[in-house]
Amino acid sequence: MSSVQLDERLVRDSYPVAELPLCQLRLMDDTRFPWLILIPRRAEVSEVFDLNEADRQQLWREASEVGYMLKALTQADKINIANLGNVVAQLHVHIVARLRGDDAWPGPVWGQGQPQPYDLDGLASMRDHLLARLDGLKQRL
């Protein structure tokens, strides 16, 4: 899907969903939280400020649109958008739908319990829902 080599942890912990103008969109393999990741297709970039101005604007455009889409899809109480990179240095942006009463509410999702991987049917269903909503979103990007 992408010509930029992905960090092995991103590959291991998530599934590809779609290619957006700047980023590869991936689904984290944890059914407890609807959780997407945007990974810019730019080599050797670890910080948002490493991107040129046009790419920075595009990254936040994609993050905002994907966040809006995920909130509508999940009826989330809050969408968390975060760029950490303490473990995986490759620039990536987490977009997590949070629901009051989820396994980590109101704290952060990182380090909370054990991930609950998707089974094949659950993964296919979630990807189908995301792809159906992405059709309209891609036109705005």
From TrEMBL:
Gene3D superfamilies membership: HIT-like (3.30.428.10)
Any single Pfam family the record assigns to this protein: HIT
InterPro entries, A to Z: HIT-like, HIT-like_sf, HIT_Hint
Protein name stated in the entry: HIT family protein
Domain of life, source organism: Bacteria
Residue ranges constituting the HIT domain according to the UniProt record: 36-105
